[in-house]
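Hey, quick one: can you model this chain's 3D structure?
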Amino acid sequence: MPTDVSQVEAAAATRALVARDERPTAIAYDSDVAALAGVTVLTEARLGELVATTSPSLVGVREGVA
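Sure thing. Here's the predicted structure for all 66 residues.
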């Protein structure tokens, strides 16, 4: 579900995804801001136990590195 990288749009997209009859098995966010908004929505919807994170956290990818 395409959005800009704002908290508002990421939260709205997450709400729309979890409101579906068939919930997604995964949600990937393209920024830390969007991910935080999504985690907040999932926690507020009492779905926080479904949140998985990576360790160490991936905060950026640098392309073109030899």
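One thing worth noting: The chain has a mean pLDDT of 79.
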